[in-house]
């Protein structure tokens, strides 16, 4: 099998990170504690986008859990906010 491209490897990392933190209870969702732990462990260097992160979590977390689709929406929002912060279009 061919070596994955950087983007393919990144997609795998997103999936594995979700699976790693979605352990207790329903393995298809992150509860509030799991989401908090994921953010602390995996996103601790993105301090500049913390307000965006907090706002997005509030919007996503209406049912007390975050599924994979909501998680990917969160990651996409962080990517957009990071682009703005570093001056990319």
Q: Structural class of the helices, strands and pairings?
A: mainly alpha
Number of helices: 4
User: Strand portion, in percent?
Assistant: 5-15%
Q: Over the alpha carbons, how many angstroms does the gyration radius reach?
A: 14 Å
Termini Cα gap: 35 Å
What is the β-strand count? 2
Neighbour order of strands in the largest sheet: 1-2
Write down the overall geometry.
globular
InterPro entries: EF-hand-dom_pair (IPR011992), S-100_dom (IPR034325), S100_Ca-bd_sub (IPR013787)
GO cellular component, one term: cytoplasm
Pfam family, one: S_100
Protein name: S100/CaBP-9k-type calcium binding subdomain domain-containing protein
Plain-language structure description:
The chain is mainly α and 89 residues long. It has a domain at 49-89. 64% of the residues lie in helices and 7% in strands. It contains four helices and two strands. The protein has helices spanning 6-21, 32-42, 50-60, 68-86, and strands spanning 29-31, 65-67. It has a two-stranded antiparallel sheet with strand order 1-2. The protein is globular, with a radius of gyration of 14 Å. The termini are far apart.
Question: Strands, helices and their partners?
Answer:
Elements: H1 6-21, E1 29-31, H2 32-42, H3 50-60, E2 65-67, H4 68-86
Helix pairs in contact: 3-4
GO cellular component, one term: cytoplasm
Domain S100/CaBP-9k-type calcium binding subdomain: 7-48
GO molecular function, one term: calcium-dependent protein binding
């Amino acid at each position: 099998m061919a070596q994955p491209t950087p983007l393919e490897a990144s997609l795998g990392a997103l999936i594995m990170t979700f699976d790693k933190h979605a352990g207790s209870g329903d393995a298809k969702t992150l509860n509030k504690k799991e989401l908090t732990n994921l953010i602390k462990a995996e996103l601790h260097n993105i301090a500049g986008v913390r307000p965006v992160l907090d706002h997005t979590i509030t919007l996503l977390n209406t049912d007390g859990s975050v599924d994979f689709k909501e998680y990917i929406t969160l990651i996409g929002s962080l990517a957009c906010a990071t682009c703005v912060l570093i001056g990319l279009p």
